[in-house]
Write a structure and sequence with these properties.
This protein is α/β, with parallel strands linked by helices and about 220 residues long. It has 6 helices and 14 strands.
């Protein structure tokens, strides 16, 4: 990765999609370095926030936004073969990324963001929406979830795994898009998940962000 932004801490990433500012403000308390994907900078400025970096092809950033942000904070990547979210993922180094403005709004943008997670499995990136959070599972993750927590699994490619602490264990299942998925499972205590490929999305309620970050950054 090219390190436009490098930090040993977590960072907050803001896109231009629907944003729940209560969740964003909570993320900024954990991860005060703010990076914006293109037009996400206009969203940040509307809340009185100045991003440390704006990354993308900059075709969505308003002229007013461009003028309000120091030139050295603008990082123009002109190629059109990747989304602005992908440009950000390949341009930052952080302990974890708390990403807002990528769930909700246009469905094609949401699908593109989910697909991008699988292309950058080295990033510990959590997409945060109004009700749920979503991340790509590493090979092994422990989640200290309360009993009765909804947990869904959605494969982006063929993948198998094992689980402890789920009402419906996943061992022996062959997950793949268009066939076996794992929505609406439930925790019966702390959960351990293991997968044979970086291809499984994990979806839990937004209230479980602390548990997810604890699992993702424990050994990262």
């Amino acid at each position: 990765m090219a390190g436009i932004v490098q930090t040993p801490l977590m960072l907050t990433l803001l896109g231009g999609g629907p944003t729940h500012f209560r969740h964003l403000n909570q993320s900024l308390k954990r991860a005060p370095i703010l990076v914006c994907a293109d037009g996400g900078a206009d969203v940040a400025l509307s809340q009185g926030l100045t991003p440390a970096a704006v990354i993308g092809d900059l075709d969505s950033l308003s002229a007013e936004g461009r003028a309000a942000i120091p030139a050295e904070n603008l990082h123009h990547i002109a190629e059109q073969d990747s989304t602005d979210f992908e440009k950000c993922l390949r341009s930052v180094e952080a302990r974890a990324i708390l990403a807002h403005g990528f769930l909700g709004g246009r469905l094609d943008h949401q699908l593109a963001a989910l697909s991008a997670l699988a292309r950058f499995p080295e990033q510990r990136c959590v997409l945060i929406g109004a009700e749920d959070i979503c991340f790509l599972a590493p090979p092994t993750i422990d989640l200290d979830l309360p009993r009765g927590t909804r947990l869904s699994l959605y494969p982006l490619a063929p993948v198998t795994g094992r689980s402890d602490g789920l009402e419906y264990p996943i061992e022996g299942l062959e997950f793949a898009p268009g066939s076996q998925i794992g929505t609406s499972n439930t925790s019966i205590g702390p959960v351990r998940l293991r997968f044979d490929a970086p291809a499984m999305l994990v979806i839990v309620p937004v209230a479980q962000l602390s548990a997810v970050l604890g699992g993702l950054v424990r050994d990262h």
